[in-house]
Design brief:
The complex is a heterotrimer. In chain A, helix 3 crosses helix 8. In chain A, 72% of the residues lie in helices and 2% in strands. By secondary structure, chain A is mainly alpha-helical. In chain A, 56% of the residues are buried. Chain B folds into four domains: 246 residues, Orthogonal Bundle (ABC transporter involved in vitamin B12 uptake, BtuC), CATH 1.10.3470; 89 residues; 152 residues, Rossmann fold, CATH 3.40.50.300; 78 residues, no CATH class. Chain B has a six-stranded mixed beta sheet with strand order 8-9-10-5-11-12, with helices on both faces. In chain B, strands 4-3-6-7 form a four-stranded antiparallel beta sheet, covered by helices on one side. Classes of the chains: A mainly alpha, B alpha/beta, C alpha/beta.
């Protein structure tokens, strides 16, 4: 087995891993403001991809299609927040876990019936002719994934660190009641984070669809791995997800080759359970001090 | 007593008699199939309710345990020619074993992370069942034939009775378990995991045991499932089933055996409901009617928020509309589940039985069984000898948080039978010392010993087991439980009957003795007449007394009282002082952290003053009060008040002038 | 400036406040005293919108605010320094303070510049906070956290400030400092409603005081009046 072949597989896997990282980042965004996350995030990715495909059918120029797709994702994120999360947060319960699962189930069934159960190709103006960089083949589509993921994360992180609204995100996460007393509307902050998270999910769908095709089940495996990435990296670590995403992507690409393609999903799942066992707050997370 | 037996037990008996009798009248094999499924789901949901209801965690792994149990039984029968009992034992055993293995890492976390771990487990199980073809036959599926039971080939009807029998046995076992210390521990750890550990009950091990038990039931149900269908495929045990099972538990009502039964009925009947358009329309219309009624009533009485009232109405109205618009309801199965589940979770969070249960309880008031007379106090709290020998010794203790040195090289000796005061200004490290001794924090450095033996570090549970008991400055009572139950949870050495025997109902004598002992302690702190009052309904002062009673139930070598007079009104402070004095008189060694100097002066034999995480003075209360460093640090006399008039009543007048 | 009329509020089904009424004049310091559980903190929470009152009126500068979300009331100019301080532990001291001024600072950029004057005022009041401006609020001592909580409320340039138990759990030397600050703010013309368990100390700074008993106001008057009232003296000032 030539080394270059292994490297090639690891690299394509790692690029795929960036998509996991992007979806995982969507979890972190909402977790940051409300300690909640959307268990139906995968369905958001999928439905946004379908919707973008439908918008594309109208013949609008590609950049505008992408923009509308992101907007659709944001609106969907808002809908999830309103129907599934807000009530539970107000009651300080964890009911959102169940409710977001339910909403995901609904969206899945909706997509199945509206867009059909078959996988469809997702056209993109970006070429999929491989480029040879340092002896490794990479397609521009794959590169666009990497660029898109990193650009979005940089933008959002800059927002969180340099603007007052970004600091308000952290304040709401630290103490919801106290931030309300500062005039920061916790509800609106959480809404904003869900909208951002929905747009990030849509972006993930738009970036990954040209590679994987679009179908109702396109995101079910994706989201499990994003969960793994988020938990392994720690739900509070912005850039940790990139590292873990790259690693997991490479790992499973190799695992599917050496153990069998049916086991492709196993490394992420095992990693998740192991991470919980060894370091529950994630590799990049901070330890929690219990108080009485 | 009779009324109680009649109503509660009678209803259960009637249920199982009915279940057993139905096939004598209804002979359709289709109906029999449904009933069998109902019994199997009943077991499955009771198991799931352990985590979802009693531990309060969203568990997405039960479908996996059903699958694992089913395959275990299937493989045992086809490969090793096992009989029914062995196959079921294997199924339940595998469920329990893997449940424990999963719980060990997964239950260190809560909430979303736990849900994620169980979700991953379900996905991993599906992958494994699919890929391990040499064992499971992979995607082709596994066929099996029900072996004879004791040489007798079971008819479908007889197999059904077997399932009902298993269901009844599980029901009974669960009921016995829940009315024992186990049930109380489950309740307690949801209210306050920290206090549960600090009372030596072991939050983590109870959670793991509970999850393993529930998973074992999942496996058992899987075994019956395999024998019922005689054909297994990996696809049957995935995410969708897990969600439907959750629907069953939530819809039926969490923390309720009856709820599990109602949920199981629903889950078993759901496919039929969807196959007939008329049935579906009728059912969704019924749902809408209920949502409208409950929602509007809730709005009118202002018991519901607008969203809680309106969202279920919209969801059920969508169902009704969908019933007319959609061609094939089967295709929309998942969306229909989703809408139903959504309406229930939002509008009726306690589930059908939770709702009905409250109504029934209001209708038939069943008095709880009478309590036994209190046990003699000397038995419950044997007097110690106040020897004055070193009991609790801290040497060179350090605890840093990042750069903050909360405790920074502390030496302290507490002598047996003394009341040892610990004072110091805010942030001087008192609370950290308490938290290190009681095991909440592991020390950064230093040694702790109790009676000369090293004290376990960094585990509330282990420290409690070694003889340290504590109260909490911010009360950590099990607020939903009664005063009596609060004390019973903590009783040391009162529960010796092993789990299997408890499930068989052999723990009742022990339970009575525990009640008597707990009552004696409640009498001791003056709450004997409020034994049945939920802790959250007690007055603030009574709650502080209850915390002491609960700590005494540990029969501690050292009792740590963390600001026992904080927030008490003056009369209650006096009562508290008197109570602590009586505890002291029984020879129990006390470490007292207190802000009120007069309380310290009245009670303590010896006082240690801390500042900046170190000892600055030690001696009798009077000596310490006069010590210049104490005055400087604690009483703030170094910085003379610029405007003396603005100063609060000068300490050491400890009782704040509220 | 702040007027509370016949307020009813509570948690779930139990009502803690049963018809509380009080008035805070502009520029006045008003103390709210009473036994544990009398409803002092609940009154504060109902005024600032942390819980929604079930009946009654709260007028801020003449404008009814009852039932509005807390953030809305805060933006209208009411600052509430809550019981237990509730600083944003994972944020720095300076970020805590800037967030206190959220209601009048630009949301995105340039907020540091716009908040500089208010920061300088707070740092002047609490030099210790200036020393620790980069430190995480969670690592401050109890007394410093209390100063931060008061400073954070001041940053909003509020019309009315509610201070709930500023002395709770603090060493006497720190309590003195807190009360010195309250005096100084009073001299600067700040309108304040103060809940305090050290009734004596509260009466020293207050222009007017209300005594709560079981969810309503039992007595009110100037501190001098209350000191003459035997019942009050026996119950709270003994």
């Amino acid at each position: 087995m030539p080394v270059s072949f292994i490297v090639q597989m690891a690299v394509s896997g790692a690029l795929m891993g960036l998509v996991y990282a992007l979806v995982a980042y969507g979890f972190q965004l909402t977790y940051a403001t409300s300690k909640s996350l959307n268990f139906g995030q995968g369905e958001l990715v999928m439905v946004s991809a379908f919707a973008t495909l439908s918008i594309m059918g109208t013949g609008l120029p590609y950049p505008l299609v992408v923009l509308l797709g992101l907007l659709f994702g944001a609106l969907l994120g808002l809908a999830v927040e309103r129907t599934g999360v807000r009530l539970a947060l107000e009651q300080k319960s964890e009911g959102w876990i169940l409710l977001t699962i339910i909403i995901g189930l609904f969206l899945f069934s909706f997509a199945e019936n509206v867009w059909g159960r078959d996988d469809r190709p997702f056209p993109t103006p970006i070429s999929s002719q491989p480029l040879n960089i340092l002896g490794i083949d990479v397609t521009p589509v794959e590169l666009s994934v990497a660029v898109g993921v990193l650009a979005v994360m940089l933008l959002v992180e800059a927002f969180k660190r340099t603007t007052l609204l970004g600091k308000a995100f952290e304040a709401v996460s630290a103490d919801r009641d106290a931030s309300e007393l500062m005039g920061i509307s916790a509800t609106r902050t959480v809404m904003l984070s869900y909208a951002l998270s929905g747009a990030v999910a849509a972006l993930a769908g738009i970036l990954v669809s040209p590679i994987t095709t679009v179908g109702p089940t396109m995101a079910s495996a994706l989201v499990l791995k994003a969960f793994s990435v988020a938990v392994v990296a720690g739900l509070e670590s912005g850039f940790g997800v990139v590292v873990v995403g790259l690693f997991l992507g490479a790992l499973e690409s190799l695992a599917s080759f050496y153990v069998g393609s049916g086991w492709r999903d196993a490394p992420g799942l095992v990693l998740l359970i192991l991470a919980l066992a060894v370091r529950p707050t994630g590799v990049f997370g901070k330890a929690v001090i219990r108080k009485v | 007593m009779l009324k109680r037996l009649l109503l509660v037990r009678g209803a259960e008996l009637l249920l199982f008699a009915l279940l057993a009798a139905i096939p004598l009248v209804v002979t359709s094999s289709y109906a029999l199939g449904l009933l069998t499924l109902l019994a199997i789901y009943g077991i499955l949901l009771i198991g799931l309710d352990v985590t979802v209801g009693y531990l309060g965690q969203v568990n997405l792994g039960q479908a996996a345990f059903l699958g694992l149990g089913a395959y275990a039984a299937g493989i045992a029968v086809t490969r090793y020619g096992a009989g029914i009992p062995l196959a079921l034992f294997m199924a339940g055993g595998l469920g329990t074993l893997l449940g424990a293995l999963l719980a060990l890492p997964a239950l260190r976390l809560e909430g979303p992370q736990f849900a994620l771990a169980t979700l991953s487990f379900t996905a991993l199980t599906a992958t494994a069942l699919n890929e391990l073809e040499w064992l499971t036959n992979g995607a082709q599926g596994l066929s099996l034939q029900v072996p004879p039971l004791l040489g007798h080939a079971l008819s479908k009807r007889e197999f059904y009775w077997l399932c009902v029998l298993a269901f009844a046995a599980v029901w009974l076992a669960m009921r016995n378990l829940l009315s024992s210390q186990w049930g109380r521990a489950f309740e307690a750890l949801r209210d306050s995991p920290i206090a549960t550990d600090a009372m030596g009950v072991g939050t983590y091990r109870h959670k793991v045991a509970g999850f393993a038990f529930g998973s074992g039931l999942g496996g058992l149900a899987g075994g019956l499932y395999a024998l019922n269908f005689e054909y297994l495929q990996p696809q049957g045990f995935q995410y969708e089933l897990t969600v439907i099972l959750l629907l069953g538990v939530v819809l039926g009502g969490r923390k309720s055996l009856w709820g599990a039964f109602v949920g199981a009925t629903l889950v078993a009947l759901l496919p039929n409901l969807l196959s007939s358009r008329f049935l579906f329309q009728a059912f969704s219309a019924l749902g809408l009617a209920v949502a409208l009624f409950a929602g509007l009533r809730g709005l009118a009485r202002r018991t519901l928020r607008p969203f809680q009232a309106l969202a279920p109405i919209v969801a059920t109205a969508t169902l009704v509309a969908g019933g007319f618009l959609v061609q094939n309801t089967e295709d929309w199965r998942k969306a229909i589940f989703a809408l139903m589940l959504f309406s229930v979770v939002v509008g009726l969070p306690e589930g059908l039985m939770g709702f009905a249960g409250r109504a029934l309880a209001a209708l038939f008031r069943v008095a709880p069984p009478p309590l036994p007379p209190p046990a003699p106090l000397d038995e419950v709290l044997p007097p110690h000898l106040a020897s004055g020998a070193p009991l609790l010794v801290l040497a060179g203790l350090k605890r840093w948080f990042g750069g903050v040195r909360a405790v920074d090289g502390l030496d302290l000796t507490v002598r047996a039978g003394q009341v040892h005061g610990l004072i110091g200004p805010n942030g001087s490290g008192k609370s950290t010392v308490v938290n290190v001794v009681s095991g909440l924090y592991a020390p950064t450095a230093g040694a702790l010993s109790l009676r000369g033996a090293p004290l376990p570090q960094g585990s509330l549970f282990q420290a409690a087991r070694s003889g340290v008991a504590r109260t909490f400055q911010n009360l950590q009572l099990f607020s939903g439980m009664t005063a009596l139950e609060n004390v019973m949870v903590a009783l040391r050495g009162a529960y010796r009957v092993p789990l299997p025997l408890i499930c068989l109902g052999l723990g009742r004598g022990e339970e009575r003795r525990a009640q008597a002992a707990a009552l004696a302690l409640l009498d001791f702190v003056g709450l004997g007449d409020q034994a049945r009052t939920p802790a959250r309904d007690l007055t603030y002062g009574a709650q502080r007394f209850l915390e002491i009673a609960r700590a005494l139930a540990r029969r501690p070598d050292v009792l740590i009282l963390d600001e026992p007079a904080a927030g008490l009104a003056h009369p209650d402070v006096l009562k508290q002082v008197e109570l602590i004095r009586r505890v002291h008189q029984r020879g129990i060694t006390i470490v007292l952290i207190e802000h009120h100097m007069d309380v310290v002066s009245q009670l303590c034999d010896l006082v240690t003053a801390l500042d900046g995480g170190r000892v600055i003075a030690e001696g009798t209360p009077d000596e310490v009060k006069r010590h210049p460093r104490v005055i400087a640090a604690y009483l703030g006399a170094v910085e003379p008040a610029v405007e003396p008039a603005a100063a609060p009543p000068a300490p050491p007048a400890g009782v704040p002038a509220t | 400036m702040l007027e509370v009329k016949e307020l009813y509020a509570g948690y779930g089904l139990s009502e803690v406040l049963v018809g509380t009424s009080l008035t805070v004049e502009a520029g006045a310091v008003v103390a709210l005293i009473g036994a544990n559980g009398a409803g002092k903190t609940t009154t504060m929470r109902a005024i600032s919108g942390m819980i929604a009152p079930s009946r009654g009126e709260v007028l801020l500068d003449g404008q009814p605010v009852q039932g509005l979300p807390a953030s809305k009331i805060a933006r209208l100019g009411l600052a509430h320094s809550p019981e237990g301080r509730k600083v944003f532990a994972p944020l720095s001291v300076e970020d805590n303070l800037l967030l206190g001024a959220f209601r009048h600072l630009p949301r995105f950029f340039g907020f540091r510049k716009a908040g500089a004057a208010d920061l300088a005022h707070v740092y002047d009041l609490f030099p210790r906070l200036a020393e620790r401006r980069g430190q995480l609020a969670g690592t401050l001592s109890g007394g410093e956290q209390q100063m931060l909580a008061i400073g954070r409320a001041l940053m909003a340039r509020p019309k009315v400030m509610l201070l709930d138990e500023p002395s709770m759990g603090l060493a006497p030397v720190i309590v003195q400092e807190v009360f010195r600050t309250i005096r100084r703010l009073k001299a600067e013309g700040m309108t304040m409603l103060l809940v305090e368990q050290f009734a004596q100390a509260a009466l020293e700074v207050a222009d007017h005081a209300f005594v709560m008993e079981r969810g309503r106001i039992a007595v009110h008057g100037t501190p001098a009046d209350l000191r003459r009232d035997e019942r009050v003296v026996a119950a709270y000032l003994g």
